[in-house]
Amino acid sequence: MQATMEPVLQLRNVTKKIGRRTIVDNLSFDVPAGEVFGFLGPNGAGKTTTIRMIVGLISMTKGEVIVKGVSVRKQFAQAMTHIGAIVENPEMYKFLSGYQNLVHFARRHSGVTKQRIDEVVKLMGLQNRIHEKVKRYSLGMRQRLGVAQAILHRPSVLILDEPTNGLDPAGIRELRDYLRKLTQEEGIAVIVSSHLLSEMELMCDRVAIIQGGKLIVVRSLQETTDSVQTRIIIDVSSPPLAYQLLTESFKDMSISIVGKQLELETDKARIPEIARLLVKAELDIYGIYSSQKSLEDQFLEMTGGEMVV
Amino acid sequence: MSNFNDLLRNENMKIYRRPRTWLMIGFLVLSLLLMSGLMKWDEVRNESPDWKQQVTQQNLVLQKEIQENNKIGPDHIESMKKEIKLNEYYLEHNINPNEQSMWDYVNNSAMLIILVTILTVIVAADMIAAEFTWGTIKLLLVGPASRSKVMLSKYVATMGFALLLLIISFAVAFAAGAALQGFGGLNLPHLTIGADGIVHEGSMVVDSLQRYGYAIVSLLMYVTFAFMISAAFRSSSMAIAFSLLFMLVGNTLTAVFSSYEWVKYLLFANVDLTQYLAGSNPVRPEMTLSFSIMILIAYYVLFQFVSWLLFTKRDVAA
């Protein structure tokens, strides 16, 4: 992670109100160069609205989006030279060939050469069918063409709204590897929103979780995976007895009985100590498992268990 | 940042790469050829060997009518007198008025500009709305160009298409006329009777271009209107339907309400500027050419402003 770098994208108190309803409420966060930033939230949380405000499709009621020091609101055209985006499904002109579509989007930017188009086509693995009409493309190919279109002009920020929609597992993996490459080699910041939490875990360096238009937390996934706090499940002969024993000895630990097992949250270093205690009390231990909290659990916990789509 | 020419090239690419556009152009060419063929057929059918006798005969009938029939109004008498004068001029200079020249084909093609208008309205209606239907608007607007610039490129491309259709009309009619009548009539004068009552020889090209010019006024208005509806409702079918409805119903509407003074402020009442030519009456007696031009400019500015406002200020949410 390169969090120390100058942020390429900054959101400052971004707010969207429609009538009296606040859809996005005072959102502020920074995304540094080279980071894959995930955007997570239940349906209607304001994810898409936020993304559309970043790219200027929806106007802001208040606040500022700054891309490489350029305000999207005040200098839209200039800010857009730094942004590449696919908003929702990558809709292309179906009556044009893939190549013509790329030419169409390339023309809007100064300095996208024919070589660059060919390079991107190869990068996305489209070279065999690039001259076919887009209407004959599969969804996965359209997705790749969409990404190709978004990176033609070497943007500093790449915004992908639900990029894994309609991709097969191999396609998702390809996209993930490709995003990694982009961030590491070209220092592009990537903002991804996705409903596939497990995907986000694999893809992102950090995730922002929003709910009801409010930013709930921005958290680093590296932190959570290396987290000292782990969830331990102990399969023990008498859970109530063990529960009593452990609550007496470790006052700060959160312990609960789940079914016939004991669940507790602690750091790894204390596991031997706990085991010794239980053995001394002549309790039989059938197993001790450590399970790391997945992003999904965290997410559900933070958003109050609402369904995520 | 985007260069306007590149945006225009993009819009043109999206118009001319669609098979539909070429179907429309083919349809226009076919209609022009059909019209030319019918004109030739009609001419051959009505051919008479001695046109001089026919014209003399016609003049006699007209003169008799003027002298004997007291019921006809002064306007009618005036026009009949003009016809007699023209006929005398034909006889004097040995010009056969029944013989069609290539210019008649071009002049008649001006009547088909209504078709050009309809075809351009269809393209204009799709210009903005189709991007919404396709979902491509999201990619189109997330680019280094202001929305105003994108919109202008779309408008200019639409007008370019209209111009192309007009040139095709003129060229096809000219070519068909030349093929069916030969280039003999190329330098034929256009005869008119001025206010002074004398026969004038004018240029046929100028006359044809004038006919085109009057037709282009309504083309410009209806296409701009369709463009506005396209931006407002983001629906092509609605833009096409409204524009065509107004084109078809407009004249009837003005005719029905022509006794009311407010009719003169309607677009339809002003769109046809030929009403100010000698020999025709405007919708309302108090209307003048400059009045109509002012009204047309006002409507044009209004349409453009509303399109711009709706295209640049609204959120793209769906």
From TrEMBL, chain B:
UniProt superkingdom: Bacteria
Organism per entry: Cohnella silvisoli
Transmembrane segments: 21-39, 110-134, 155-180, 212-233, 240-260, 289-311
Keyword terms, alphabetized: Membrane, Transmembrane, Transmembrane helix
Protein name per its UniProtKB record: ABC transporter permease
